[in-house]
Amino acid sequence: MSRARYKLKTAPSILPISLNELKRNLHIMEADTDQDTYLGEIISGVVDAVQTDIGRQLCLATYTAYFDSYPAGDELTIDLGPVSGISSVRYYPDDATVPTTVSDSDYQLDNAELTARLRFLNTFSPDTDRMNAVEVEFTTGWGSADDVPRGLKDALILLCSDRYLNPENETLNFGASTRQKAAERFLRNYRVQRF
């Protein structure tokens, strides 16, 4: 079975938590802007780390998934969810330098869960000697910060607070903090299951 490799095409324009949400948790007045740049860097770093850890995209972005072959059983899995739509499916036929686009009437998207399935209704034959012979461009992530599940937002706030309060990352020496343990309980529900 061909596993997907993902490449970001269009990055999100928003973050799942705001600077003011983090400041409230840290008991920093919204009007106190002295540390806003630093707090913004913490939020960005934690969001990247969480997305990598759980294998999900939090805010709306566009990706291309690459597969080496046509799927057994006519079905591909896109676990970088939640997938909101497929922009295009393309493949390279034997010895082609330009990909062929698959008609959107030739596949179905099942995005009822965080892990999406793409089922092909008509088969096609990509070049079996070519790596990344099948390309699926798709949009993924929640459409607004308000749409991101509360558990994910709470985990992000806990992890950002922990990073702010422990800038030397002492947890490497002393084990996970209470905030990190609580965040892990929230994140467990959204992590991609890899077998």
Tell me what the structure shows.
The structure is a single chain. It contains five helices and eight strands. With 195 residues, it is of the alpha+beta class. The protein has two domains: 17-58 and 145-187, no CATH class; 61-140, no CATH class. α3 (150-165) packs antiparallel against α5. The longest helix has 19 residues, at 36-54. The radius of gyration is 20 Å and the shape is elongated. 26% of the residues are buried.
Count of helix runs: 5
Structural class: alpha+beta
Q: Specify the overall morphology.
A: elongated
- Tell me the number of structural domains: 2
Distance N terminus to C terminus?
13 Å
- Low-pLDDT stretches are none
Range of strand content:
15-25%
Helix content: 25-40%
Q: What order do the helices and strands follow?
A: EHHEEEEEEEHHH
- Mean pLDDT across residues: 92
Q: How much is the radius of gyration in Å?
A: 20 Å
* Count of strand segments: 8
- The largest beta-sheet arranges its strands as 1-2-8-4-5
Largest sheet: 5 strands, antiparallel
